[in-house]
Amino acid sequence: MAYNFRFHNGKDIKGWEESNPLNEVAIKAIEDPNGAHSSREITSIPSPFARIDLVKTAFKEVTNIGLDGNTIYHKMVSDALDIGQIFFEADKYADKIEIISWDRKADLNKLINSSNPNHRMLGESLRLYLEQDQATYNFDVLRKLYLINYKEGDNPINILGGTSPSTLFFTSANKYVLNDFQIGDDILLDDEYKPLYQRDTEYIKYLFSLRENIPGISSKMSELNDYFDLTYKNLDLHVKNQLKDIGNYYKNLSSLNIAGGGEIVEVLGINLKKASGKQDLIRNSDFVIRPDKVTKEEYQPLVLPNNIFNAGLNYVTGTWNPNSKAPNYDPNNIDQRILPQDGNKYPYLTISDFLEPVIIRTEFPIDGNYFFDGSFRPNQDIQNGFLIPLKPLYFKYFSVDNLDKNINGEKRFELKPLSGGYIEVILRIPIQKDHHITFRRTYNNPVNQAHKPEFNEKANKGTIIENRINVGITPFYKFPEDIKQEYNIALYEADIVFDDINYKLNYFDAENNAVPSEKIQKVQRRFKDEETYNMFGEVVQNNFDYIQLKHDFASGILVPKFFKKIGGTSKFDFSIDFGTTNTHIEYSIDNGNPQPLQIEKKEKYHIGSLIPFKEFKESYLTALRDDLFPEEIHSKSKYQFPQRTAVTYHKKTNFSKPVFSLGNISIPFKYEKESFAIHSKIQTNLKWNSKTEENQILLTSFFEELVKIIRNKILSNGGVLNNTQITWSYPASMLKYQLSQMESDWHDLIQKYLGDKVSIRKVCESLTPYYYYYKFEGIPAMEKPLVSIDIGGGTSDVAVYKEEAPILFSSYKFAGDAIFGDNFNRNININGFVNKYYSKISEKLEENDQRVLTEAISRIKDNESSHDVINAFFSLKDNKSLNDKNIDIDFLKFLKTDKEFKIIFLLFYTSQLYHVSHLLKSKNIPIPGIISFSGTASKLLTIIDSSIKHDNLMRLAIETFKYVFNTNENIEIDIKLPSSPKEISSKGGLSVPENQNINLNEIKETLISNSHLQSNEKNKISYKEIKDFEGAAIESFDDFLQFFLTLNKSYPFRDNFGIEKSSLDFTESFLNKKKVNALKTGIKNKLNEMSDKSDEEINETLFFYPLVGTLGELAFELEKNKKV
Amino acid sequence: MIYMKATFLFLVLVLSISCNRNTNEEAGFEVQQIATNESIVNNETKKANDNLVKSTKNDSTEKVNNQRQNKTKGQTHQQSDKKIYNEDKSKNPLWNWWMIIGLSSLTLNLFFIFRLVKSSFKKEELRSQLNELKNEQKDLKFKILNLESENNKLKDNKKTKISKINAPKKDLQSEKKQNLDDEKSPEISLSVENSNSTNIPAKKPTTLYAEKADDSGVFSQVSEVKDEYKSIFKFSLKNMSADTAYFEILNSEYILKMVANSPDIYLYMSCKPENSNQNFTSEIVTKQKGIAENIDGQWRVKKGNKAIIKFQ
After folding, report:
1. What is the domain partition of chain B in residue ranges?
2. Is the ipTM of this complex over 0.85?
3. Which of A496, A534, A625 to mutate against chain B (most B CBs within 10 Å)?
């Protein structure tokens, strides 16, 4: 049987019979060997017209077969719809495609008239088709074709498809792998086919509205129209409803232009439109961030999960695919990002926008009381702490206060230890509908600590870097708006491996703005090449919410848990007794009992540390207490007030540059207790009368730190700054201009830190003790006068009260230093007290294994100041480490039992009384009923009488007054000598009446010698005439010495004080031998001190000069004689 | 060893064969004995025969030799026994040979058993030596790793110092340098596996390193490994089991700088200074070594045993 060589079935033809041309029936009869399931495009006829026809046929076939399927027709329909969607979303793909127009008339003519014969042939072919098939394919109304060129393709021109007069759109059948052409979960032009009814609602609405605007579409594009009809039946009800109310949807869309120009893309004269911006749609996504803070962004970013997320939330055009994963890292700026699995340009955030790639591990755990620690608890594997590896962007949306809060029952932020020392960070970001996105990142230990940290943000792999750091902050609260905001921050860095990396602290306020650099002052106090660690002091004059610590390889966040209950209603009164040797501060709350200024353990908001204070076992940690201040200052702690008047700073500090208290200069609370670093300098004896600028800076810095501590005390204990009163005392010997300068300094500092509504007052330190006795011990000065003698380190002040008012005042430089100091060019090597007791005390400390203290005192001795060494001896009595171990080293007790030196203290006491009694006598003031003592050196009086009633002191006072007043009457004098004489002045300062405004000059008297009284009432005697009084001064001294020796007969020193006659005899001859020379040296020194002010009145008695110049030497000689 | 085992097994086999052979011979001998007794019955009186048969039947076969040796039995009985014995001897000429082979194999066995026991003891000893060497190898590995790490640190330090010196150059060459992978420490071949560890003599460490002592004089982090940046004291022990050690301050620039600035923390719990730390310029001389004692596993310095040091 013959074989018919033809595709279609039909009647067999035998021989040369006439056949019919192929018609539609014949074509349909052709059997497709693949059954329309070919996966390959039909490309056998390489002509656009063939494609137009094929797509037209495809629409027809799909309508017949059904919308869903995987035939080649479904592919062609799906791809044509993809082309339509690319046109619709042209703006989204603007950087990837370009629309090329082909003008039927102009471009065809160009081809036909081309000089290239091939072009001409092509032109002719096209013309032929266009004319022949114009009715079938609507070429008669075709003016232009618009083609989409994919710019990122392999060839110069990569046509994806274009507009079709038959089906609106058609594809080129070229196979391209397109990047980021995705709408929802539909990847365009891929091998998965999507019917129209499953597509983006906006696109469906657009095509249906377009259909409505194409006249005669049912005849011109019948295949497409039928497809639409079938599609409509398959649409969801809500889409159908939208189509019913479609109204002016088409009109409201913008026309699609070529390259933003004037040429509008059209099909059959109907303009194509482009999608309105999706931002408005996306901003309603369930993945939009739900911030704590109000942000100014028009479009808040989405937060997309980087792991399986099956909450069924709406993404952009549909539900988020549970298996989809957003990238861990997107290098583009947030507002330039393309949404994953969607393709729209819209801001979204990745895990790497929130989490740092490197986490900073500290050598010791973080103190969770002061800083947010991510609820991390050290375990067996990890004994360290971690800075929070958040980026500042997080705080653009979220408050620091909520970091430790929960969301949906889970912590917002967690640091979890893993095995092998790894760390997992979990961050939960709130999104819409009360959901959250959980981000997790594991930070691995570095392969080698010496290597720079290696991480991979794209792969979500973090790493750990260990830094030996600490940060201290004072104060640890947020400042109210109405007072000066100033924090002192100390950063310590003791890295070993990366020993030269640069550290920086960035401060961010509540609005997540960086504190501007002009509000931050920086200094360096310690240097790694000297002490193995750096300390940077920063003064930040602005409130801040958190700190970003940044160095060359990593960044981390420190979130301080600042104290929030700042201020209150209580009234605080402070009294500051600034002394050359020691400074003491007392305060009272709401006029209650005075108490020493303290920082108690419970008051933890004066200062905070990143590393817990209990972990301070390394030098780079303990220095925080030195450079800022200790966390505890109270009577039961290592540090307390009264505090030595001193400051410490680096030896090479340049005082011509800014110096900041608690930055690069501070009060050494550990002075006399611990060692100091080699490059630290300790400056004691901060004198108010120093002429150097450097000393002025040191003094101001000292005051400044005290004022800051006072401020913290008020604010952290429910005080109100505006009701605060600060009383500061000054020595009577201070000159007017000096007083004025000091007053100005105090006012400036107090108003700077506490505001200008604080009540500030000054009071002479000589007057305050009386008010203490008056208010707290009920001792009035009514009938008989009361003499108050305040014996300090350098000066003694005498004030006489009668009828509760001061009536006489005098001051002289005969105090503690006269006994222990290096007066009149003497030095520590010839100081009898130091020589005798230094080795004894050192040995006792050694015996008790108190090497730290031994060394501290040794260091002080190295400075060659007898005054400082003796003060250090006295300080041991209150030393906590000694008291804790019941080690009794009481220098005062040593002196009490020292018979050799007792005569010195006896001379000291009786000479004071002798002079005071002459002073009273010269002013016709009767013998006082009470003599009260105050001041640090008044405790020396207990060496000659430590009894409770002070019988010896009383007896000596009575004998002295009787001698001077030349009376044999029985008189009674009560002696008041408190156990803490230094604190009396401060406590009294709190008790000075409000209206007490005494002009001391009006009652000041100076008894130059027993017979010469310098008084306001008479003509003044100036220092020019001082030598005229030498003889009288010697006479007065001789009289005193005579009285002193006679006293031994009426009140035997041996019986009462254990003073041997030999000592007395030696003293007599020694003083007689030295008195004139001592007097002259004293006068000379005074004149030198006065320099060009020798015309000023004599303001100090000459009576004590022979003693000031001899008591120290006498002690040395007595000690020497004993050895012999 | 395998040869020895094979030899041993072979000899055991020989011995067992020889032993089996004897046993079978004895069994055969018993049968023959009964048969011989039956022939005597034919030659002797019935009575005597009956007695003999009775006695033979009543006794177990294992007691035959005893019967032979029983002198209280009748003469006839004795004679017949001798006869039987002589007949047996004459009938089994290979008996002596088997005896010799058996005895010699027994001797050989004993000899090899002795060798085997001896070798197992020796093996045990070698094994314990090997374990010791392995432990030592581990220690050495650990030390080498630490040395490696120290070496890396030193190299890095050196690099950073060099980089400081070359800072101006660095700026100029920064672009070039970025391309260089110079941040990683170079590999240093200090592999333990390469060395023949069995050749390392078993030497017990007598040097320890310690960090600071606490308030009660107890040293922290006492280890055979020195931490360049934390070990402050070097302990010298007579041997590893010694419970006292002399200690002195390590002479490292970093450590000296650290402790001299904060002697309260690092030194004074275990050292007595002759002078103030303010005298420190570059060294701390240990004038007299301190003595630390190992008490309950803790190295502790007692008050009177502190080292005497001098800052200079």
Report:
1. 2-92, 205-311
2. no
3. A496
